[in-house]
Amino acid sequence: MSLRGEAAITGIGELKPMKGPAGKTSAGLAAEAAKHAIEDAGLKREEVDGLLLTHSLWDLSILLPEQLAEYMKITPAYADTMDVGGASGAAMVWRAAAAVKAGVCKNVLCVCGDALNVSRFYEGPRRMGPLQAEFERPYTVMPANCAFAMIARRHMHEYGTTREQIAQVAVKQRANACLHPDAIFHGQPISVDDVLKSPLVADPLHRLDMVMPVSGAAAYIVTAADRAGDALHPPVYLLGCGEYVTHNIISQAPTLTKSPATVSAKRAFEMAGVTPGDIDHVGLYDCYTITVIVELEDVGFCPKGEGGSFVAEMDTSPTGKLPLNTHGGELSFGQAGHSGGMSFVVEAVQQLRGEAGQRQVPNCELAFINGNGGFLSIQTSLVLGRSR
Amino acid sequence: MTQSAYAKGLPEPTEVSQPFWSAAKNRELRIQRCTRCRQYVFYPREMCPYCLTLTLEWVKVTGRGKVYSWTVVRRPTEPRFEKKVPFVFAVVELEEGPHLATNIVNCKLEDISMGMPVQAVFDDITPEITLVKFEPCR
Questions:
Q1: Quick one: what percent of chain B has pLDDT higher than 70?
Q2: Residues 6+ apart with CB under 8 A from A280
Q3: Cα A160 to the center of its chain, rounded Å
Q4: Which residues of A fall within a CB distance of 8 Å from B73?
Q5: Which pLDDT does position B76 carry in this prediction?
Q6: CA-CA-CA-CA torsion for A165, A170, A175, A176, nearest 10 degrees?
Q7: For the segment A207-257, what is each residue's pLDDT rounded down to a tens digit?
Q8: Subunit contact A130:B89, Cβ cutoff 8 A
Q9: Nearest to residue A42, comparing CAs of A186, A185, A227?
Q10: Which residue among A133, A135, A146 sits closest to B71, beta carbon to beta carbon?
Q11: A138 shares contact with chain B (CB less than 8 Å)
Q12: A157 contacts chain B (CB < 8 A)
């Protein structure tokens, strides 16, 4: 069974990322983004009959879909909490598409909201389970920084990738963020020097190699393609998808230099019937700079091991040869918990609709998104397009 | 996991993992081996992940391995590590095959290298818990 052309994203909503606590709850933020998406899709709240959400990462206050259903008085026929970490925001697209294709529901609201609460900031990693708590956590802080630091070091060792090349990811995405008025670092361009002079957190990664946690929320509506033509905005069709899981915690990773995208992206391209060369706009999950480099290779934009030189030499701006993370990615737009992963979907939709303003990629027909969860643990790949 | 143990970053041994922690207290590295396919298994679990057999046995291993990758942690993003930075977090590949998360100790930071041969050492962090760390083979 293929999901090609079966469903479309017809509405989006995204709150401007906020530094620090928002004075609101994760549920309140999620509901606000959801309201925007419902209105953007031209729907009434009563027409939403599917609900997918992910745990609020910063405080684990949202765990069940019923919590948000109750909060907004939505009564879905299909409800799920799905959690594949940062990949969730992308992974919801194909799950919602499968549900509408199966006829279980008509309009799926996909949403994440996350209120930064410094005192509860370390709740999120509990989700990785008791084995990480017992066998990794005694030896270090916040495993994510360490995990990707080890991934970076291994990549540098095996392929000769340099610190300057890795820093280019941050620099170029920051330049893109300067075109997005909502980006948390809008108006603050940086250089390779700035990245390498920022504090060393977990060698070899510096602070500017890492995301900026923010409060925020994002949402989108997925509808059957047959009903999407009457929407307020041009529908964005799901053309291909793929997903793959290899491990959970970093000490169990089968490799530190390859990611599940080697499998998930291939499946997505095959389903869509397109190749990396056909793609006009790319969104690659960027919890850390090195993540983007690994994904560029494994998705197929450049040969394995050449991600560093590729990103250093490529024009990744909206008018460049490979527009990449044109909203700045989580590194420069901000990571509002799990809604960070949704920001790539929202950006791709705006690009394909022609609504990306100063960031608009000319003649944008096809977009590719790669979501990452955990430590290169699980990845989901999507091909989205303007035409069915 | 209990709130306080999680906050302190202390391992909470389970019935399944207790032999590992008891051995560590006795300055021994013991991990599981599958009785059917003979592969070594870590972290401790009820089932062999290679052949799904439910009978694993505990065996003493050499304690030798090599550095698979590492990072020097310089910012203590949690209070419990404030006095410990800089320290080394690493994944070590045991001679027998499995990987485990650990600290590299008794080694100058600039001397750590990819694939460096290391040997298990034991650190009593509480009266109940001894952590398994690694130092360069001499």
A1: 99
A2: A323, A351, A361, A363, A364, A365, A366, A367
A3: 28
A4: 140-141, 145-146, 201-203
A5: 85
A6: 110
A7: 999 998 999 999 999 999 999 988 899 999 999 999 999 999 999 999 999
A8: no
A9: A227
A10: A146
A11: yes
A12: yes
Peptide bond into B43 cis (omega under 30): yes
Q: Tell which A residues from 100 to 129 touch B, by Cβ distance under 8 Å.
A: 122, 126
Inter-chain CB proximity A141 and B77 less than 8 Å:
yes
- Does B103 or A231 have the greater pLDDT score? B103
Burial group, residue B111, by CB count within 10 angstroms (0-12, 13-18, 19+): exposed
- Residue B4: pLDDT over 90: no
Q: What share of chain B is helix, strand, coil (3-state, %, to 5)?
A: 15, 35, 50
- Report whether pLDDT(A124) > 80: no
CB atoms within 10 A of CB B115: 11
Q: Under an 8 A CB cutoff, do B101 and A145 touch?
A: no
- A254 touches B: beta carbon within 8 Å: no
How many angstroms separate the CA atoms of A195 and B124, rounded?
Answer: 39
Residues 6+ apart with CB under 8 A from A103: none
What is the arithmetic mean of pLDDT over B118-136? 97
For residue B75, give the nearest of A206, A249, A337 by alpha carbon: A206
What Cα–Cα distance (Å) separates residue A218 from each residue in A86, A231, A246, A351, B44? 13, 19, 27, 16, 39
Q: Is the pLDDT of residue B7 over 90?
A: no
pLDDT at position A142 is 73
Mean pLDDT of chain B: 95
Contact criterion met (CB < 8 Å) for B100 and A251? yes
pTM for this one? 0.96
Contacts with B129 (C-beta within 8 Å, 6 or more apart), sequence order: A138, B10, B11, B21, B25
Residues of A in contact with B81 (CB under 8 A): 140-141
Indicate yes or no: CB of B73 within 8 angstroms of CB of A202.
Answer: yes
Which pLDDT band, with edges at 50, 70 and 90, does B1 fall under? low
